[in-house]
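I hope you will forgive my troubling you with a question about protein structure. I should value your view on which stretches of the chain appear to form regular backbone elements. Here, with my thanks, is the record as I have it:
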Amino acid sequence: MADSTLDDVRRALDRATKLEEEEALSVLRTAREDLNALESDAAVDEKRRQELADRVDQRIREVENRDDYDSGLGAAMNPDEDEAP
């Protein structure tokens, strides 16, 4: 069952890319809660759980900062990007 929950989180990550900001954040925050609940489950592959948790946190930051990236501030905020001045 734990593996299916991790797969559910992975699918939620994929689905969130197609959603509007508020819906995406809701899906991602639920996924983060699911991952946090699995933290003490011995049946869960901790490395895989942590990798998914990192991806969920990263995706949340991306969605929260989407407007900044869309307005061109993203390159200034992330100078490693190709569009950086």
Summary: The mean pLDDT is 82. The longest helix spans residues 46-64. The radius of gyration is 15 Å.
